[in-house]
Amino acid sequence: MPELIKFETVLDTGAEKLGATYAAALLGAANKEGAVDQVLAELGQFVDVACVQHPQLGVALASPRVAVAEKVRVLDRLIGDQLHPVMLRFLKVLAVRGRLGYIHAVYDAAVSQHDALLGRVVAEVCSAVALSDDLRRSIEKRLESLFACQVRLQEVVDASLLGGIVVRVGDTVFDASAATRLEAVARQAQKGFSKRLLENFDRFAVVM
User: Fold this and answer.
1) Full-model pTM
2) Comparison of pLDDT for 170 and 177, the residue scoring more
3) Which of 39, 114, 129, 149 has its CA 20 to 30 A from that of 33?
């Protein structure tokens, strides 16, 4: 029977505290090397590979049954030449301390801490289809103008919106969904989807 390894996320209080501690250490080390953006990107890619694309790899790296030396060899062999030295050393530290199972919580905490340091607002954008590059840039620009600060989008595709778009920033919701307008949605699907979303975005109703 396959071994089950739980990758801890910030939904767990203990994982949140541990993730925040390691995230702060990683950001500090990356900042000294002027490589924060690169290290965060690489950490996100590692989480995606180990937790989503190839969970069997994540299980092996997180398992207490696998020797630390073997985990280090795997990291060197598979991804060692693809990572910034700070990132590689950090993963090895987690391996030695038996904390690779917390890698998702570390990533979530690192992203949140970096946003806070930059004074950046996180906006969750839910749309019926993936955003086009033009629409993404337009939404970022308009939100940055509204909140007078940098904005990072978290994009979620939700087909139930049926052609609409909903943006959440903290407790504020900008709702331009079209879930109850089936005919209009059909027309949007045929032509000018992004254009219509931009028009709707200008008429957002703010719900506190």
Assistant:
1) 0.71
2) 170
3) 149
